[in-house]
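Folding Query — how this chain folds
Tokens — whole-number codes for backbone shape
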Amino acid sequence: MENAGTKEKHKILYAEDQESIARLVQFKLEKEGFEIIILTDGNNVVQTAVEQKPSLILLDIMLPIKDGITILEELKSNDAVKNIPVIMLSVQGDEQKILKALNSGAVDYIQKPFSTAELTSRIRKALA
């Protein structure tokens, strides 16, 4: 995205309760030129998305306070943020969970553990 001759960073909102994973992903994605906002529970994801207007949301399914599927449904029903692409992340690889996430509006579903190269590639595809 170009703006007055300077390149704007894509902002990514990342909801992940495992801090070690969140910090590793943040480090890798910042090296790739993304700006990362981390939330460690599901409580303020929608509010933060409305306020920060990220280019993309990475959303763990199993979060404290509010689960990722519920948050995804709230995001997709909120006119201010419903068009922001959401990639779901989870250790749960069963077909029911994947289909529920995709049918609720997620653009992709990545099973943990994942490589940061794969994650970066899928983020770039979702932002294209």
In short: Confidence is low (pLDDT under 50) at residues 1-6. The helical segments are 19-31, 45-52, 68-76, 95-103, 116-127.
